[in-house]
Each structure stands twice: as C-alpha cells, then as structure tokens.
Design brief:
Length: about 425
C-alpha cells in the first residue's frame, strides 16, 4: 500500500517511510491510497471472532501488502494482550473500556502497535543504526509511548515533559522504566517541550548524525490500529442483539481516535453516525456549526488530554470526506461541555448507575444522553481509567478511588530523569553526547 500526504505534494510513499518519517515533507499527514471494504461474510460472522482475530482482519486490509502475514499476526496479537470490554451503563448507552492496557489509557493500543511495527522494519533493514523516538508529553502520550517501546531492540525513546506540570501518577509511568527509555524534565511548559522536539526534527546537523522519529497520532502506525476496537465494539453489540442504529461518541482532542472510527465506517462497519465530544476546546464543534475552522490557543480543562486548540487530524477528516462540509456533517455530530458540566455528569452517573467515568469519558457519555434518538444504541469510548485523574475524580464524587494494581506498581518505582533547560542547544548537546 502506498501513502499520500493530505497536502497533496507528496505521493507514493511506502509504509516503512511513512512510519519512520511520521509527517510528510510538505507538512501534511499520510493517508493510505486505498481504504478496503471488508467482505460481508466478515460482518455476518464477526460476533464469533476474538478481538485479536477481528483486529488482524482489519490490520491485514491496511498493512497486509507490506508485512509478512505471520509477522503482522504476531504484531497484532502482541499489541492486544488485554481486553476492551463493552459494559452497559444506563438505558441504551454502553461504555467501551479502552483502559485495560499497561498505562490504563487507549493510547496503549496505537503505541504498542507502532513500536512493534517500527521494530519489525528496523530488524528487516538490519543497518545496525538506532532509531530515536522523541516525544513531548503533558501526561498520557509519554506513558503510553514509553511503555509501548520499552525493551524494543534498535529503538531509544526520549520523553520530554514540563517539570512540575505533570501529575505524579502520570510522571511515574515514564520516569521509572529505565532500559531504552530516557525521561527528560524540561524547565518550561508543555509548549516548550513540543518546540524542542519540532526543532530537533528540523535540525539538519542533528538529523545527519542521528535517526529521529516521532510517535504522536499523526503517525499512521499509531493512528490506524485504533480502528480495531470499533469493530470489536460492534461485535459485542451484535452478540447482545443491539447492532442496529449504532451511534459512537468519542471524547476528542487531536481527533486521531475518532478518525480511526471514520476509517472503520468507510471499511463497511455499520455505524449510523459519530459524535465528537469536546470540552471547552470546541474548535471542531464550531466548525460543524458554522463551516469555518478557526484554531485558537487551548484552555485548561478537567479533561486535559483533550485540551487541543488545533486538532492535528482535522486534515485527515477533511481529506476522507473530499473536503465536503456537507459530507462531514452527515457522519459526525458535535457536543461540547464545560468543567462544571463534566463534573456534574461524572457525579450524577456515579450516583445513579454506580458507574465511574473519567472526565474524558464523561463528555462522551453526556453527548449520548443528550443526543441519542429512539431506537438507537449508543457506545462511548472510555479513553482512560478514572484513577489516572485521581484528585479530580475523588473531589467530584467525594470518595476515595481505588488505584488499580498496575498503577500502584508504577508508583513504587524509582524516578530517574534528566533535567534540562528549555534552550535547544542544551537538548541538542544532550542528544549528541548520549
Ligand atoms: C489522548 C486522549 C484523548 C484524545 O484523543 P485524540 O485521539 O487526540 O482525539 C481523550 N482522552 C484521553 C484520556 C486521552 O489520553
């Protein structure tokens, strides 16, 4: 399969190059040339297949031409060594719990898949050259990427995070790992971290000396595997006899997750419509209302992984729908909630149903509560375990939240990190001397 850039200046790129480069040279996002429609028999029989079997069928449609079947199967099965259960919360609303992986957030799926795919290409190339993954994080991305790439041969990961601005639970998930993971505490903000990473990718001298790549949701290897669990959700609904008129609500920030679902629909997955659930950073909802896309600086909210002022995958959404505003609107609706609405939803849901949402899932749940029509079945993606936002959630429900064992294990580890200033020269010097 070849990949083209959403900016149309770059075409016919191999999967390997798209994965290693991350972003196209014209600064666009890579898209596959073809989105295959899966056969009717697959959907007829989907409820009898395991998560891994379903995921392999979807993965084969994207990556089957470029990777040996046995290797692709191994990559899929190693990635999905945890379940993604679907639970009824209330009425016709179901939660797809994406947080049973090692760092308790949905980003584990993409990060684990990408690390194994990159590892496969590095081994095949056999140049002996180490690939350096640079990732700037405000929390969740760093932990998913660090844990996904932990121990993968031929790859080193540098996680840059703002000193003192990441929650202790999040920090321990990427500073206690050791091995091929290096955590760098920057004396600055998340924006400084992101700037350092971006500057590194553009530094000719550095790139001549080291192979650098990124691991955020612009990377096709992190983004496409997120389609897997939409199919698995459908399979679980079908088993329950609830597969008619399915509406999927996705708590969205950079729109990688929802775009993977839109790809699923294009492959034949019977989803009636999607809802993009936003916090106060509602740039996309505004676009749906007005047809105009006006990025603006993000504001801090309780659902902080969705504090994005210019969603990077917007370019993919537009490309997928041929830049037709009408076509986008036919498939996607929007909903936006402020912090007090998020808190109220989390509290009320807990008190009336016993189900504990996290602040991101709360947006997804409420969008279904308000937007589901008669006869429809709603699924919202629960993107992170509520214990990852411990102080916020405990304060809202007025009760202690139990911390899952994997998270407790991280908290017992010893923090190892390097402190650096926000000057690029310091960061560059550190990388070159590593
Ligand atoms: C990253 C993240 C999101 C947003 O996902 P996008 O793919 O960027 O839209 C939502 N919730 C949580 C918990 C996240 O970590």
């Amino acid at each position: 399969m070849k990949y083209y850039s959403t900016n149309q200046q770059v075409k016919n790129v191999s999967l390997q190059d798209a994965v290693v480069k991350g972003l196209a040279e014209d600064k666009g996002l890579f898209m596959p040339d073809v989105i295959k429609i899966l056969p009717k028999e697959f959907f007829d029989n989907i409820e009898n297949l395991s998560f891994q079997e379903i995921a392999y069928t979807v993965a084969d449609a994207f990556f089957g031409e470029d990777i040996e079947a046995a290797d692709l199967k191994r990559i899929v099965y190693e990635t999905l060594n945890f379940d993604v259960p679907l639970l009824r919360v209330s009425g016709n609303i179901y939660s797809l719990e994406l947080y049973h992986g090692p760092t308790l957030a949905f980003k584990d799926v993409g990060a684990r898949f990408m690390s194994r795919l990159l590892g496969y290409f590095i081994k095949k190339e056999n140049s002996g050259e180490t690939v350096n993954v640079l990732v700037a994080t405000s929390g969740d991305t760093g932990s998913a990427v660090a844990n996904g790439f932990l121990g993968v041969e031929g790859i080193r990961v540098f996680v840059l995070y703002p000193k003192g601005l990441v929650s202790p639970i999040q920090e321990c998930q990427f500073t206690t790992l050791g091995k091929n993971i290096t955590a760098i505490e920057i004396d600055g903000t998340f924006d400084d971290c992101q700037r350092l990473v971006k500057t590194a990718f553009l530094d000719a001298d550095l790139n001549a000396k080291m192979k650098l790549t990124s691991a955020n949701s612009i990377n096709v290897a992190r983004f496409l595997p997120q389609a897997f669990y939409y199919f698995y959700a459908y399979a679980q609904l079908k088993k329950l006899g609830k597969a008619q008129d399915v509406v999927v609500s996705v708590p969205s920030g950079n729109f990688g997750n929802i775009t993977a679902g839109l790809f699923g629909k294009r492959m034949g997955l019977p989803v009636k419509r999607f809802i993009a659930a936003n916090n106060r950073n509602d740039i996309f909802c505004q676009y749906l209302e007005t047809g105009e896309y006006n990025p603006r600086p993000s504001v801090a909210t309780l659902a902080n992984a969705m504090d994005v002022g210019d969603p990077s995958n917007y370019a993919r959404v537009l490309d997928l729908y041929g830049h037709s505003y009408e076509a986008v609107k036919a498939d996607i609706g929007g909903a936006t909630y402020n912090d007090s609405q998020i808190a109220e939803t989390l509290k009320t849901c807990y008190e009336t149903t016993g189900y504990l949402l996290d602040p991101h899932g709360a947006c997804g749940y409420r969008a279904l509560q308000e937007g589901l029509q008669k006869g429809e079945t709603g699924v919202f993606l629960e993107t992170a375990h509520p214990a990852k936002f411990l102080e916020t959630v405990e304060k809202i429900i007025g009760k202690k939240v139990e911390i899952p064992l994997p998270l407790q294990a991280f908290m017992k580890g010893t923090k190892q990190s390097v402190e650096l200033s926000k000057e690029f020269a310091d960061f560059k010097g550190f990388l070159l001397n590593f």
